[in-house]
Structure formats: structure tokens, C-alpha cells
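Quick one:
INPUT:
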């Protein structure tokens, strides 16, 4: 029971960390500055899908079924690829920073810091070392929040302080995990890039909200949407934690296992049927928090309608996790790339139409909700077909 509780806390830790960071940043620098910073932050998260998130998912899939003596070799190969892609991405961003805008330096730092944090925690999660993972998460949570405070009082850039703090956090990981890096005889794989592309395409809609609002409307509204989305994601913590907790089990079982279909189906039914409770709670919390701390009004938008849009979109987003897990276990990345690419292109084409007819935050969320519903249905049908084919074979 304690392990399950720690697993749920650990699964929700990245979301809580991001929320805490944004709240502290807004408190110290203001809503408009948060809007400017969060635009770069979400661009960095998009890049992280290729530099760390895809490789993290590959760890989650490949580590559980490995024999003990093979785990370090698998980890080292994936770590090397993660480091190589991160180096290339950061180099490109620094060049853009030199020739284009200084904000690219901050984006590069976030890619390195957040990407490294996400990658290393996957090793602990795949091994279900939840106590060590909790220490690691709390260290990162505390140091990232502290970095904002230090930056405010010293006038040093937040990104620079984050970079220094990350050295401490990564030291904590190697200390608590006792992982060994093998410098020879490891295998290289491109699957991490494929998983990264899948995650990028599936999440690019959500991550595009803040930059789009900042570009079309104002930095203040972008900061408001950032806080609203981060707080609304509290409703995801328990459902996401349960889904992520099952991932190592599903990976160990394999699609052909006779109980695999039952477990996957139960996970989906849980997400669809019970998420209303979690998201209703999140909606109440968001409404109270925003109304109490930010009694502001926007000329063209009603805060309550924005809240409803955010909660509905987040609900369908979380419902897609169980079938996505099945496709990840099957390493069916090509199908997910095609499907998510089609949906991302559709969304941004619809947004492009608003260049002609005028931007509307409501229309943007309406597009994303319709695509989210279609995504859940499509992924579920594909996952069911893969399981049935594996059981027959």
C-alpha cells in the first residue's frame, strides 16, 4: 500500500514541480513576466521530447524485462543517445541565441535541466524505487523554486541559477540510484527519437497554447493560461499516477499475456468513468485559487468559460494514456507518429485560419477538444487490435 502511495506521489511530482515553479515565478516577477518566460519554457519542453522524453519512455519499456546484468548496458546506451541529442539541440539553440534572441539561451538551459531531470527519474521509476525517487523529486522541486528566489534577489538570470542548481540535483540522482554507466558494449537505438516524435506530436497542441496566446493576445493572458493549465493538471495527478504505475507491469507482461487485455481495459474504464471526480475537484480548486489570487478581468474572455475549456481538454487528454501505454509496450511508434502528426497538422491549420478570421481562445480550445476526443477513440481501437493479434499469434 505504501509503495502504491509513493508511486502516485512520484508520478505526479513533475506536474507539481512545474506548478510550484510557475507560482513562485509569478509571485516574484508578476503575471506578465510569467507569460514571457512560460512561452520559452513550453518551447523547451517541445524540444525535450526529442532530447529526453522519448529516451525516458524507452527506459520505461526496456528496463523492466531486462536481466539484472543487462540493465546497466541498456541504460548506458540510451543515456549516450540522450546526451548526444541534447548536445545537438543546445548547440543549435545557442547559435540561435547569438544571432536571433537571447531567450534561446534560457530555452537551451531548460532543455538541459528539465530534460536531465525527466530522463534520470525514469530509471528510478522503472525499478520502482519510490523512496529514492521521492528524494530526487523533492530535491529538484526545492532547488528549482529556490533558483527563482535567488535570481530575484541577486538579479542573476533565472536560467543561470537553474543550471548551477541542476548540478546538485543530478548528483543526488547518482547518489541515491547507485546506477553504473557502462562505457562499452552498449547498443544504440533510434526508437527514442520515434517515441520523442510521438510525444511531441501528441503534446504539441497543449504546449502550443501559451505561445499562441502570447503571440495573438498578450503576455498577461498567456501567464493566466499558464497558471490555469498548470493548476488544472492537478486533476491529472491521480489518474496519471495510476496509469504510469501500471506501465512497468504491462511492459513485463507483454501483449501476448492472457491478463494483459483485462488490465489495459480496466485502466481505460477507470480513466473514462472516474476522471470526472478528479477534474471536478480540480475545477473547484482552480476557480477558487484564480478568483482569490487573481481578481482580474479580460476584455474579450470570461474566466469561467476558459476554465471549463481547460478542464474538458485535460480530461480527454488523460483518457488517452491507457491506450497509448499499450502502443508503447508494442513499440508501435510509427502508427502513433502518423496519427499524431495528422492531428497536430489539423490543429495548427485550423489555428492558421484564425490569422484570416481573427484569433479566438475559445475556438482554439474547441479545436483541441474535438481532436482529443477523436484521438482517444482511435488509440483505443488500435490498442485493442494489437492485443487481439498478439494473443492469436
Amino acid at each position: 500500500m505504501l509503495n502504491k502511495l509513493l508511486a502516485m506521489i512520484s508520478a505526479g511530482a513533475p506536474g507539481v514541480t512545474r506548478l510550484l515553479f510557475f507560482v513562485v515565478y509569478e509571485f516574484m516577477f508578476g503575471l506578465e513576466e510569467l507569460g514571457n518566460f512560460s512561452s520559452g519554457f513550453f518551447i523547451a519542453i517541445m524540444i525535450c521530447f526529442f532530447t529526453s522524453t522519448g529516451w525516458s519512455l524507452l527506459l520505461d519499456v526496456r528496463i523492466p524485462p531486462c536481466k539484472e546484468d543487462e540493465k546497466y548496458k541498456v541504460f548506458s546506451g540510451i543515456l549516450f543517445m540522450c546526451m548526444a541529442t541534447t548536445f545537438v539541440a543546445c548547440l543549435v539553440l545557442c547559435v540561435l541565441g547569438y544571432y536571433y534572441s537571447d531567450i534561446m539561451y534560457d530555452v537551451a538551459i531548460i532543455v538541459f535541466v528539465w530534460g536531465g531531470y525527466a530522463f534520470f527519474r525514469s530509471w528510478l521509476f522503472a525499478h520502482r524505487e519510490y523512496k529514492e525517487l521521492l528524494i530526487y523529486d523533492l530535491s529538484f522541486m526545492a532547488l528549482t523554486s529556490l533558483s527563482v528566489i535567488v535570481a530575484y534577489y541577486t538579479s542573476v538570470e533565472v536560467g543561470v541559477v537553474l543550471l548551477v542548481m541542476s548540478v546538485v540535483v543530478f548528483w543526488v540522482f547518482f547518489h541515491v540510484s547507485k546506477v553504473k554507466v557502462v562505457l562499452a558494449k552498449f547498443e544504440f537505438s533510434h526508437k527514442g527519437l520515434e517515441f520523442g516524435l510521438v510525444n511531441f506530436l501528441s503534446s504539441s497542441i497543449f504546449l502550443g497554447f501559451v505561445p499562441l496566446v502570447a503571440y495573438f493576445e498578450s503576455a498577461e493572458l498567456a501567464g493566466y493560461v499558464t497558471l490555469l493549465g498548470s493548476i488544472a493538471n492537478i486533476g491529472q495527478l491521480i489518474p496519471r499516477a495510476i496509469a504510469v504505475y501500471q506501465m512497468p507491469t504491462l511492459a513485463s507482461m507483454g501483449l501476448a499475456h492472457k491478463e494483459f487485455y483485462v488490465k489495459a481495459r480496466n485502466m481505460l474504464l477507470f480513466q473514462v468513468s472516474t476522471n470526472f471526480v478528479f477534474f471536478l475537484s480540480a475545477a473547484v480548486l482552480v476557480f477558487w485559487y484564480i478568483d482569490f489570487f487573481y481578481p482580474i478581468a479580460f476584455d474579450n474572455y470570461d474566466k469561467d468559460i476558459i476554465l471549463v475549456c481547460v478542464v474538458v481538454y485535460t480530461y480527454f487528454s488523460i483518457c488517452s494514456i491507457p491506450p497509448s501505454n499499450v502502443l508503447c509496450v508494442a513499440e508501435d511508434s510509427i502508427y502513433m507518429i502518423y496519427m499524431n502528426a495528422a492531428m497536430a497538422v489539423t490543429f495548427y491549420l485550423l489555428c492558421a485560419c484564425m490569422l484570416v478570421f481573427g484569433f479566438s481562445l475559445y475556438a482554439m480550445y474547441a479545436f483541441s477538444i474535438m481532436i482529443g476526443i477523436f484521438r482517444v477513440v482511435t488509440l483505443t481501437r488500435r490498442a485493442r487490435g494489437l492485443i487481439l493479434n498478439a494473443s492469436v499469434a
